[in-house]
Specification:
Layout lengths: L3 E6 L2 E6 L10 H16 L5 E6 L3 E3 L4 H5 L6 H18 L4 E5 L2 E3 L1 H8 L2 E5 L3 E3 L13 H9 L1 H10 L2 E3 H6 L5 E3 L4 H13 L3 H14 L4 H16 L2 H11 L10
Parallel strand pairs: 2-3, 3-5, 4-6, 5-7, 6-8, 7-10
Antiparallel strand pairs: 1-2, 8-9
Helix pairs in contact: 1-3, 5-6, 9-10
Bound molecules: ligand T3D.
Length: about 260
Amino acid sequence: MSIVLTEDQNGVRYIKFNRPDKLNSFNKEMAQEVQRLLISSDEDKSIRCIVITGVGRAFCAGQDLEEAISEDGPELKSIVEEHYNPIIKLIRGIEKPILAMVNGVAAGAGANIALACDIVFAAKSSKFIQAFSSIGLIPDSGGTYFLPRLIGMGRASALAFLAERIKAEEAEKMGMIWKAVDDEDLEMEVHNVADHLAGLPTYGIGLTKRAFNEAWNNSLDNQLDLERDLQAMAGLSYDYQEGVNAFLEKRKPKFKGE
Ligand code: T3D
């Protein structure tokens, strides 16, 4: 059985971590496979939305700690550099909507991979744990970048230092994730949103993602310049023409993501 499962449906690629007996913790093979699948999802024009989730009772328990301490395993620095950093850069750099469907516990790098996604849905029974401090590490996989920006420095510090288990509903309340959903409704809700997103003007959505990525570091002047340039690009798209024509002709638009 493959270490990561994939399924393509209605323009949506589902990427499912598949080491359920290890709570989908990451080893080298899984990290490389996730990178490969993200790259191929980016290159495949028929894929217009990506959903990342886990098989079994966990989303992902972060680094496989047996591998991390194994004498013939990869060094800690290369685990971060070669396994997680490329995944986070791909999630942020792929100009298509990426959803996290957090089906169970998300710990360590697993939590931060979810938080790097554009929209995070989580089953109400799931929990987010910045598990790093429990084993003497620092939040990686973008944790020190995204957490303070998403929830503010005070909350980020508390989560990172204390490694408390945060329930999905609490995560929603503090703005860390988009939505906590009843467990039995999670798949249906995420499938519906993903199908919907895949039919939207995903070229424009990709440019919006680029603008949001840049907004973290830009001055207002620079951001306004960027909006001007990206809007000019969006204005040349098929989808813009189609959206305006459909509005004027009082019909439903049929977008292509171009
Ligand atoms: O080199 C580096 O480490 C650098 C990279 C760092 C990135 C990171 O992600 S560091 C953080 C690593 N992750 C953790 O510290 C989390 C460890 N896991 C847990 O704290 C707990 O398992 C959970 C809170 C996630 C879930 O608890 P619970 O009680 O529901 O499940 P469990 O019984 O602890 O785990 C079930 C099995 O999964 C168990 O195996 P067994 O006894 O049934 O054979 C457990 O050992 C295994 N498992 C869970 N997490 C990991 C793991 N095995 C390897 N690595 C794991 N991270």
